[in-house]
């Protein structure tokens, strides 16, 4: 079976300085990879590279990033843009900052959806309100009519999650998706993301400091330090019996959530 996503010996530089070194990883349909490590370890840089969002200073200088057999590193911008949204979606760490402050949430969701499919404003609003309800935004109609600055940070984060999930992408890249949310809403968001995997076979890369989220969601874990892979393997193995000294140190330094059910997506 051909992998959905494959990184081969990827090195990423900013202003010609390497920040990610020789990373390999592979993701199949429906798999979830958790990426952990301290701040500045290169976690977010990897998923930005997949999206082509490194900016003018950033560049993949070595290696290849394959999505469904196509190398996104060499892909023309126009072709890559067609993939972003319906095929590859991203939840930003600060979704509020990714939203336009002078346009309503509803307008921005409609524009995002209309870019990739024929859809009426009414149908778009109905789908968005249903998705918002699933991740804890009960007053969806009001949210659609609001500007981002009228919403709390946690509400804007859920709007960003809603936008990324509405088109049922094949690959969802989530950069600290639950960091701005309280524990109850974190649980709802995690459960909805797992349901998305179950219903649509969505593969995910989840960048997080929250080991509880990794434990609940991820099939595999990638541990980074200073842009280098320190450990990569199945979640249960890495979390309970890590081989690398840094991973052991990382696991012992973070609080662990008490388990109330089965982990790894409840499978």
Automatic annotation (TrEMBL):
<dbReference type="InterPro" id="IPR003439">
    <property type="entry name" value="ABC_transporter-like_ATP-bd"/>
</dbReference>
<feature type="domain" description="ABC transporter">
    <location>
        <begin position="5"/>
        <end position="251"/>
    </location>
</feature>
<dbReference type="GO" id="GO:0005886">
    <property type="term" value="C:plasma membrane"/>
</dbReference>
<protein>
    <submittedName>
        <fullName>Oligopeptide transport ATP-binding protein OppD</fullName>
    </submittedName>
</protein>
<dbReference type="Pfam" id="PF00005">
    <property type="entry name" value="ABC_tran"/>
</dbReference>
<keyword id="KW-0813">Transport</keyword>
<dbReference type="InterPro" id="IPR050388">
    <property type="entry name" value="ABC_Ni/Peptide_Import"/>
</dbReference>
<dbReference type="InterPro" id="IPR003593">
    <property type="entry name" value="AAA+_ATPase"/>
</dbReference>
<keyword id="KW-0472">Membrane</keyword>
<dbReference type="InterPro" id="IPR027417">
    <property type="entry name" value="P-loop_NTPase"/>
</dbReference>
<dbReference type="GO" id="GO:0016887">
    <property type="term" value="F:ATP hydrolysis activity"/>
</dbReference>
<comment type="similarity">
    <text>Belongs to the ABC transporter superfamily.</text>
</comment>
<keyword id="KW-0547">Nucleotide-binding</keyword>
<keyword id="KW-1003">Cell membrane</keyword>
<dbReference type="GO" id="GO:0005524">
    <property type="term" value="F:ATP binding"/>
</dbReference>
<keyword id="KW-0067">ATP-binding</keyword>
């Amino acid at each position: 079976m051909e992998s959905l996503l494959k990184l081969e010996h990827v090195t990423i530089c900013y202003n010609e300085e390497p920040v990610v070194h020789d990373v390999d990883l592979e993701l199949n349909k429906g798999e979830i990879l958790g990426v952990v490590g301290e701040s500045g370890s290169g976690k977010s840089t990897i998923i930005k590279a997949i999206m082509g969002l490194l900016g003018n200073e950033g560049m993949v200088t070595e290696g290849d990033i394959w999505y469904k057999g196509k190398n996104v590193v060499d892909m023309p911008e126009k072709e890559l843009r067609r993939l972003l949204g319906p095929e590859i979606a991203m939840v930003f760490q600060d979704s509020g900052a990714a939203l336009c402050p002078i346009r309503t949430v509803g307008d921005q969701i409609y524009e995002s959806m209309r870019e990739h499919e024929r859809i009426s404003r009414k149908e778009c609003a109905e789908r968005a309100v249903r998705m918002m309800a699933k991740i804890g935004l009960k007053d969806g109609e009001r949210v659609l009519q609001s500007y981002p600055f009228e919403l709390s940070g946690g509400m804007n984060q859920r709007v960003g999650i809603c936008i990324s999930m509405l088109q049922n992408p094949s690959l969802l890249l989530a950069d600290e998706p639950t960091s701005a949310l309280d524990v109850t809403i974190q649980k709802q968001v995690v459960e909805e993301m797992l349901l998305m995997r179950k219903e649509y076979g969505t593969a995910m890369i989840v960048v997080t400091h929250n080991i509880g989220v990794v434990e609940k969601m991820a099939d595999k874990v990638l541990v980074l330090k200073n842009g280098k892979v320190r450990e990569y393997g199945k979640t249960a193995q890495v979390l309970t019996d890590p081989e690398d000294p840094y991973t052991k140190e990382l696991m012992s330094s973070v609080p662990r959530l008490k388990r109330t059910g089965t982990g790894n997506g409840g499978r």
